[in-house]
TrEMBL record:
Catalytic activity: ATP + H2O = ADP + phosphate + H(+)
One Gene Ontology term of the molecular function aspect: ATP binding
Coiled coil: none
Annotated spans, Disordered: 745-767
Designated name of the protein: RNA helicase
Pfam family for this entry, one: DEAD
Annotated signal peptide: none
InterPro entries linked to this entry: DEAD-box_helicase_OB_fold, DEAD/DEAH_box_helicase_dom, DNA/RNA_helicase_DEAH_CS, Helicase-assoc_dom, Helicase_ATP-bd, Helicase_C-like, P-loop_NTPase
Domain Helicase C-terminal: 199-368
Family: Belongs to the DEAD box helicase family. DEAH subfamily.
Helicase ATP-binding domain residues: 13-176
Keywords: ATP-binding, Helicase, Hydrolase, Nucleotide-binding
Length: 767
DNA sequence: CTCTCCCTT
């Protein structure tokens, strides 16, 4: 049978010649993906530049390039080339370039005029991925500058009017498909989420009993539902039935079963949305559709995401139906009523309206688009989404409040193929000499789930994972996994034994090297640190905007944003082990609860750097004083917005400055009537004091005893602090040295506030 | 306190 699109060859070529933009609507099997590029090439459009074709997935870009190369009589990488992440098979002679849409976006960042291209074809535009929507906006803008550029938007469903209107009523060419008819069988009543597993299992059993031979494809929302459907069918003990789950987190061996044929038996694939677009299975005759999907949504007010089970759109359900008619006529059983279907939205909400815009806005600014709110999208995101993107980028230091362009940090972030927050970590790592470590962590954070927990082996998997986990940080856990993987010499068997996903680790390896190359181009030295606190701090700096503070029992709340009732995800390395007051998370997602994933404990002394508007360095304390040295290490308390001391950090200042600070503080303390305490040796060997105090305690007298090893005769200034627990304690505000006392030998620290802090717990009783 | 669709630079 001849491809239907061949009949439209001349019309398509003519329309492209006459118009800057055309929209081609072709059903599955129309051959538009392979044929339109060939038409354009044969019509001479490659003479003035490259014909670029974008695909949403890597396999689609590489496999169609190989197919078209065969038709034209070229080898891939010559006349017909492809470029996807990690794999560039193009040369200067490449006239037809297939690529993922992410690659075309990169090219916009390098050359916003796309000067090399004569034609750009955006395939699968109906999927409305974030990248496609961004590219369509960029192309509309570019067409004002490049009158010679030709754009072809290829879409599978009936969304063509929207695209046509967006591009000033561009002509639409319809190409019929080569689909076999698929009869729809409607459900009698609406089924809710609770009942759907049993209803699905019963429907599959009934089809198996009453319908002629042919494989079945069932659509459910997630791994858990799939498992329950399979278990339910197994209990029915049906004969000649093979049950095959299909979802993204399946190990490689299991995935192969999806495509295998089982002679004499009926194959039943119970799948997530992976089978709607990403994988195509031959020989499906029956589709059973639950009508639900899991969808990620982003909430700009709080910065959290939610993974929700929602009713699938009409176009999505139609796409599922089409999976049955690829090789012969089929049937689609919908487990919902026709009246319910009619009330559903026509299309799935485009991704650009359901994600954080921070990465898109960063890329826009990098391309030179300053007025981002005026950028024309097919479906413009909300004002709140733009506001969130701005605030996030300001918090990361990529832009400055009140100015349009990117900072130097922002420019470097935009060059890294990572989410802005993850990119920010690496910039921070450069300052602290741990770029290799943090780039490795970034590769893990941007990749897929590395810890595998196969069905039936959960206990063995958990046991293997415990040995790899760092109880203070998922980021440091990733670093440990990487070190062990290197020690194993990148051994697949080691991955298998330790229940780690080997494919993900190989991808991490590729991402690492890509990042190293980019960092080298920035002039960053590849550095490693043995200090895990330094590495963790760089990670925390990137995630500072999602700083979480412990609230009650197991729940955390946002410090910089309004986020409440967040729980550490059970899959996190710090789950059940952390008692840190602050943590950061790489992701906050609401499912059954709001969970923080990718967690790292935060030390109090990092807080003034992470959130300067909420945490300040307090009054300085001279902790160490070296005679004859040019500088002294002073320790600054970390105070929260109420003046509570949360920790301390050290910095080096000239000795003269340290002395000046001290003297000023002594005067200041005395003027405020702060208590001066002098420690005296007791026979027990302990130091203690009894103090009377009036100045800051509302006229009440306090008796305090403090057990700590401190220098005899050293005076301390103290203040009464009402802590957040509601208990009153006496804390040293700073230590005063007598400068005419014999100085300690160089390098010998005097007793420090840290030491006191460890022994904190002054017992107090009111008189 | 107990677990998440799919992609991609």
């Amino acid at each position: 049978m001849e491809l239907p699109i061949l009949k439209e060859r001349d019309r398509i070529i003519q329309a492209v010649s006459d118009n800057p933009v055309i929209v081609v609507v072709g059903e599955t099997g129309s051959g538009k993906t392979t044929q339109i590029p060939i038409f354009l090439y044969e019509a001479g459009f490659a003479e003035s530049g490259v014909i670029g074709i974008t695909e949403p997935r890597r396999v689609a870009a590489t496999s169609t390039a190989k197919y078209v190369a065969g038709v034209i009589g070229s080898t891939p990488g010559d006349l017909v080339g492809y470029q996807v992440r990690f794999d560039d098979e193009t040369t200067v002679g490449t006239a037809l370039k297939f690529m993922t849409d992410g690659i075309l976006l990169r090219e916009f960042q390098i050359d916003s005029n796309l000067s090399r291209y004569s034609v750009v074809l955006i395939d699968e535009a109906h999927e409305r991925s974030q990248n496609v929507d961004f590219i369509l906006g960029l192309l509309k803008d570019l067409l004002k500058r490049r009158r010679d550029l030709k754009v072809v938007v290829a879409s599978a469903t009936i969304d063509e009017q929207k695209f046509s209107n967006f591009f000033n009523r561009a002509p639409v060419i319809n190409v019929s498909g080569r689909m076999f008819p698929v009869e729809v069988v409607w459900g009698k009543e609406d089924v809710d989420e609770e009942m759907i597993v049993e209803v699905m299992a019963d429907a599959i059993a009934e089809i198996h009993r009453s319908e002629p031979e042919g494989d079945i494809l069932s659509f459910m929302t997630g791994e858990d539902q799939i498992r329950r459907v399979v278990e339910s069918l197994e209990r029915m003990k049906l004969t000649d039935l093979v049950l095959v789950p299909a979802h993204a987190s399946l190990p490689w061996e299991e995935q192969q079963k999806i495509f295998a044929s089982y002679p004499g038996k009926r194959k039943v694939i119970v799948a997530t949305n992976i089978a709607e677009t990403s994988i195509t299975i031959d020989g499906i005759v029956y589709v059973v559709d639950s009508g639900f999907i899991k969808q990620m949504n982003f909430h700009p007010e709080s910065g959290i995401q939610s993974l929700d089970v929602v009713l699938h759109s009409k176009s999505g359900c139609e796409q599922r139906r089409g999976r049955a008619g690829r090789t012969q006529p089929g049937k689609c059983f919908r487990l919902y009523a026709e009246s319910d279907f009619r009330e559903r939205p026509q299309f799935t909400e485009p991704e650009i309206k359901r994600i954080s815009l921070a990465g898109v806005v960063l890329a826009m600014k990098d391309i030179g688009i300053d007025k981002v709110e005026e950028f024309e999208f097919v479906d413009p995101p909300s004002r709140e989404a733009f506001h969130e993107a701005h605030e996030t980028l300001i918090a990361l230091g990529a832009i400055q409040r009140g100015s349009h362009g990117l900072t130097d940090i922002g420019k470097m972030m935009a060059g890294l193929p990572l989410e802005p927050r993850i990119a920010r970590m690496i910039i921070e790592a450069e300052k602290h000499g741990c770029t290799k470590d943090v780039a490795t962590i970034a590769a893990f954070l941007s990749g897929r789930q590395v810890f595998a927990r196969p069905k039936g082996k959960e206990i063995q998997a958990d046991r293997a994972h415990v040995a790899l986990k760092n109880p203070a940080s998922d980021a440091l856990t990733f670093l440990r996994v990487w070190d062990k993987y290197e020690d194993s010499d990148f051994d697949n068997q080691w991955c298998y034994d330790n229940f780690l996903n080997a494919r993900v680790l190989r991808e991490v390896d590729d991402i690492r090297y890509q990042l190293f190359n980019i960092l080298e181009s920035y002039g960053f030295e590849p550095t490693e640190s043995s200090d895990t606190a330094v590495i963790a701090k760089a990670v925390a700096m990137g995630l500072a905007y999602s700083l979480l503070e412990h609230r009650s029992r197991h729940s955390y709340g946002g410090v910089l944003r309004q986020i409440d009732d967040v729980f550490i995800h059970p899959g996190s390395a710090i789950f059940g082990l952390s008692n840190s007051r602050w943590i950061v998370a790489s992701e906050v997602v609401r499912t059954t609860k709001t969970y923080a994933r990718g967690c790292t404990e935060v030390k109090p002394e990092w807080l003034p750097d992470m959130a300067p508007q909420h945490f300040k360095r307090g009054e300085p304390v001279v902790a160490r004083y070296l005679k004859g040295a040019e500088s002294a290490v002073i320790s600054k308390a970390v105070l929260d917005g109420y003046g509570h001391e949360l920790g301390s950090s050290e910095e080096s200042v000239p000795v003269a400055e340290a002395i000046a600070i001290q003297k000023a503080r002594v005067r200041d303390a005395e003027s405020k009537g702060l208590l001066k305490l002098t420690f005296h040796n007791e026979a027990s060997g302990r130091y203690s004091f009894t103090a009377s105090f009036v100045a800051e305690a509302g006229g009440k007298r306090y008796k305090a005893s403090y057990h700590a090893k401190v220098e005899e005769g050293v005076p301390y200034y103290c203040k009464v602090v009402d802590t957040y627990l509601g208990q009153t304690t006496v804390e040293p505000v700073f230590q005063v040295f007598a400068f005419n006392n014999p100085a300690p030998s160089p390098g010998q620290p005097l007793s420090s506030v840290e030491e006191l802090a460890q022994k904190r717990g002054a017992s107090l009783g009111r008189q």
